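Record type: monomer structure entry
Structure origin: computed from sequence
Chain ID: A
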Amino acid sequence: MGAPLKIEWTERAAADVASIHAFLLRGWGEREAERFLDDVQTFERLIAQWPRGFKRSLRNKHLRLGIIHRNTLAVYRVFQHKVVILTVFDSRSDAAH
């Protein structure tokens, strides 16, 4: 196992997370919203250490689809020294997208 890769968030992905967090805060309360942020941090650590641990996109071989939570999916790309998270989707809402 090598050194963890650097994680970068696009503006879109960061906005997606903020939107999903706000949606959860309104609909499910502070506890669920904070749990989501914990899941995001866990996901960051996972892909930093094992960037190719999630499956490739069938549409674009350069992208990977990572599960943050059973309802939340991140699309990211692996580069030599970093991972860039491009967008985040949540099936519970239209919060992101």
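Annotation 1: DSSP finds two helices and four strands in the chain.
Annotation 2: The radius of gyration is 13 Å.
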